[in-house]
Amino acid sequence: MAQTQLSSRTILIVTIVIAVLLIVVIWPLSMIGKGSEQAASDSDAIYVRILPVARLELERAPAAAADGKPRDGETVYNAVCMACHASGAAGAPKAGDKAAWAPRIATGTDALVASVTNGKGAMPPKGGAADLTDEEVKAAVAHLVGLAQ
Ligand code: HEC
């Protein structure tokens, strides 16, 4: 009888020790694993969600000249304006399409520059590149006008 009691107490103690081990050591370890997996998939999900926006911003944002000099019209056009004006997306007058540009050019350079600076129709102000200087906007307009002549 005493023998049986001892062994059941031993079994109880062993069980408790294993339970404590499980709770104190293994459970937190498994949570850490899950936690970092969760974090990884969260950041992946965030990356995937912001990717279209980030890519659009990268395409839109003209690489600022390292020397701080204003970017020329062609550079600005390629970085910002081309997104719409090369294909005619969103109803943009297509670059080089003389018929589409003639009536607009007839309104005068100042009017065109004002349209770009303030935005017009589906075109956001400065074509969406808020960091463009007035000089760069003018140069880009001149480049677009040049393509249509
Ligand atoms: C998001 C697309 C988009 C981008 C980017 C864009 N444009 Fe446009 N642009 C348009 C659309 C659409 C119109 C036609 C607006 C209208 O007449 O309703 C337009 C019209 C113009 C016009 C004619 C304005 C007028 O008064 O008739 C000029 C000039 C012009 N864009 C220059 C630029 C320049 C320069 C850039 C780059 C700095 C640029 N656009 C970037 C969509 C865009």
Superfamily (CATH H level) name of the largest domain: Cytochrome c-like domain
- Main beta sheet strand tally, sense and closure: none
> What percentage of amino acids are in beta strands?
under 5%
The second-level CATH architecture of the largest domain is: Orthogonal Bundle
Bound molecules: heme C
Query: How many domains make up the 3D coordinates?
Result: 2
Estimated helix fraction: 55-70%
Question: Low-confidence runs (pLDDT<50, min 5 residues)?
Answer: none
Which outline best applies? rod-shaped
Primary descriptors:
5 helices, binds heme C, 2 domains, Cytochrome Bc1 Complex, Chain D, domain 2, mainly alpha
Description of the structure:
The protein has 2 domains: 1-60; 71-147, Cytochrome c-like domain (Cytochrome Bc1 Complex, Chain D, domain 2), CATH 1.10.760. It is rod-shaped, with a radius of gyration of 32 Å. With 149 residues, it is mainly α. The termini are far apart. It has helices spanning 2-60, 73-85, 98-105, 109-118, 134-147. It binds heme C. Residues 76, 80-81, 83-85, 90-93, 104, 107, 111-112, 115-116, 120-124, 126-128, 137, 140-141, 144 line the site of heme C (HEC).
